[in-house]
Design brief:
heterodimer; A: alpha/beta; four-stranded mixed beta sheet; three-stranded mixed beta sheet; B: mainly alpha; Ferritin; 10 helices; 0% strand
Chain lengths: 164, 260
């Protein structure tokens, strides 16, 4: 890996998700790649949800950081392979939990479309007290990527980052 | 091979029109959680529409942009299913003042997302790599939309007398419009021939099974359907689309090229 590429990674390392400021873009798997091409440096990012309003902000943040560091690089948005919560590092999941958001479970692997609906609701541990005695209150929370849950033991409502 | 632009527009128009209808609940949801849920579903749909319009614009070339496709085409140029443009209430004329009916919204989202999990799943294997990439993302979102809508169909159908009656009325009103799903348009035929999509009729049995499963849990009765098959995807729409577009496109057309 060239020193230019290293420098870009280092420059972008501090960038966090605009809506979940405890995890970095790299940890979330949004910052996919930095590469050197014949036409110069390229930074590859991938969108999370199709309509995620944070994506515009994220792209702006990446550009601004590069500019501030005096690095000339193109920012490329790439759709495939589609972003998945499985790319989140364990470190990032732990940070989410400490922040009060239950981290995503592994995405179900062998589930066909039709069977998907018959799946039992996921058992999600409360990020506050660890109890699995929890109940879903809504499939969509404050953002599309989260569901609303309530802990029946400590009574705290909490967000669950849905597997995507 | 690449999907024809007409087919991309069909998918994009479906998403943007339903996104607009679902967004009408923003600030008016029956409960706070549902207000947020519908806004999030709408955001996903508009996001999917944007990806598809961007792809269509790139393929059209020239001065085509996603905004031009969304805001500067007229009603007869839209290729969405008629089902998706209908108001969030029962059969009334487009300008009728009426309370919104959440059962109508939920049943429509259910019927459409049950179709789209199957369509996106098939398109994930499309020979059109750009379309396959959009499908892979959209499938993940459509699954949550279906999950959400199906949950509520069951709650309404298997709920109180009032909620059951309203869910059944919504189903009786909307189900006939789904007949349009199963009669391929020329754009769909071209896309199938290019290996960019599957013949939609091959998805019908799986769709019927998804619908039957939820309706059984909801104790709702599937109405018998025959007669007129709507032709929204051919550009022949109900009057409701014109009102919807007037609201959606008004600002962009009053201030062309405006930035804010």
């Amino acid at each position: 890996m060239s020193s230019h590429v290293d420098k870009v990674w280092a420059t972008l390392e501090h960038l966090t998700d605009p809506e979940i400021p405890v995890v970095t873009l790299r940890e979330l798997g949004i910052l996919r790649d930095v590469r050197e091409t014949a036409d110069g440096l390229e930074v590859v990012i991938t969108p999370t949800y199709s309509g995620c309003p944070a994506m515009g902000q994220i792209e702006d943040d990446v550009r601004a950081s590069l500019e501030q560091a005096g690095i000339a690089a193109r920012v490329i948005t790439q759709l495939a392979p589609a972003w998945t919560t499985d790319w989140m590092s364990e470190e990032a999941k732990e940070k989410l939990r400490k922040y009060g958001i239950a981290p995503p479970h592994q995405t179900p692997k062998d589930v066909s479309v039709v069977k998907f609906m018959r799946r039992a609701p996921e058992v999600v541990a409360c990020p506050q007290c660890g109890s699995t005695h929890t109940v879903v209150t809504s499939q969509f929370g404050s953002t599309a990527c989260k569901a609303l849950y309530k802990c029946l033991d400590c009574q705290e409502p909490f967000d669950y980052f849905k597997p995507y | 091979m690449k999907a024809p632009v007409e087919y991309l527009l069909h998918l994009a128009d479906n998403a943007v029109v339903l996104g607009q209808r679902d967004a009408e609940w923003c600030g008016h949801g029956p409960i706070l959680e549902e207000d947020l849920a519908l806004a999030n579903v709408s955001l996903d749909l508009i996001g999917q529409a944007r990806l598809l319009y961007q792809l269509a614009a790139a393929r059209l070339g020239g001065d085509a942009t996603e905004d031009k496709l969304a805001y500067f085409r007229d009603d007869t140029e839209f290729r969405n299913y008629t089902l998706l443009e209908l108001p969030n209430h029962g059969p009334l004329v487009g300008y009728a003042a009426s309370d919104r009916d959440y059962a109508t919204t939920i049943v429509r989202n259910f019927l459409y997302s049950a179709l789209m999990v199957l369509v996106w799943d098939a398109l994930e294997k499309s020979a059109d790599a750009d379309l396959a990439a959009i499908a892979a993302k959209s499938l993940k979102e459509a699954r949550y939309h279906l999950h959400h809508a199906a949950d509520w169909v069951v709650k309404f159908g298997d709920g109180t007398e009032e909620s059951h009656a309203r869910a059944q009325a919504a189903l009786d009103h909307l189900l006939p419009y789904t007949e349009e799903f199963w009669t391929p348009s020329a754009a769909e035929d071209t896309a199938v021939a290019a290996g960019a999509t599957v013949d939609i009729r091959t998805l019908r049995a799986a769709w019927d099974a998804l619908v039957a499963d939820t309706l059984a849990q909801a104790t709702l009765k599937r109405p018998e359907v025959r007669g007129y098959v709507p032709e929204g995807k051919h550009g022949r729409h109900s009057e409701h689309l014109s009102y919807l577009l007037a609201e959606m496109q008004g600002l962009a057309r009053t201030h062309p090229n405006g930035i804010w």
